[in-house]
Amino acid sequence: GAIGRNLISLFPSQQIIFFPQGIVMSFYGIAGLFISSYLWCTILWNIGSGYDRFDRKEGIVCIFRWGFPGKNRRILLRFLMKDIQSIRIEVKERLPRR
Question: Which family is it part of (predicted)?
Fold first, then answer.
């Protein structure tokens, strides 16, 4: 039967270390706190929000986005319209803003 054999072929079953359930659950809890704090910061700092401006008079396209706080918080990209071949706009339905 399968009980006598090793389930993981790399290590014999006697050498697998047993972790108490509390340690494993603490690890998942701490990892969850880090992930949730990261997500809350991206929401509160409005990461990724911004605007796109197409100025036909000047012939310039400006793309502005907010990044994470620090030296590169403001992300501003400028392109000449003559250098752009095409623009694809994708609209996704979402909840209305505040």
Answer: Belongs to the Ycf4 family.
CA distance 30 to 39: 14
pLDDT digits (tens, 9 = 90+) for 11-47: 666 666 777 888 889 999 999 999 999 999 999 999 9
Which pTM was predicted?
0.61
Residue of 15, 93, 81 whose CA lies nearest to 53? 81
Nearest CA among 38, 40, 75, 81 for reference residue 57: 81
* CA pair distance 81, 60, nearest whole angstrom: 5
Q: Could you tell me which of 53, 58, 64 has the C-alpha nearest to residue 87?
A: 53
CA distances from 89 to 72, 84, 92 (A): 26, 14, 10
pLDDT-based confidence at 10, cuts 50/70/90? low
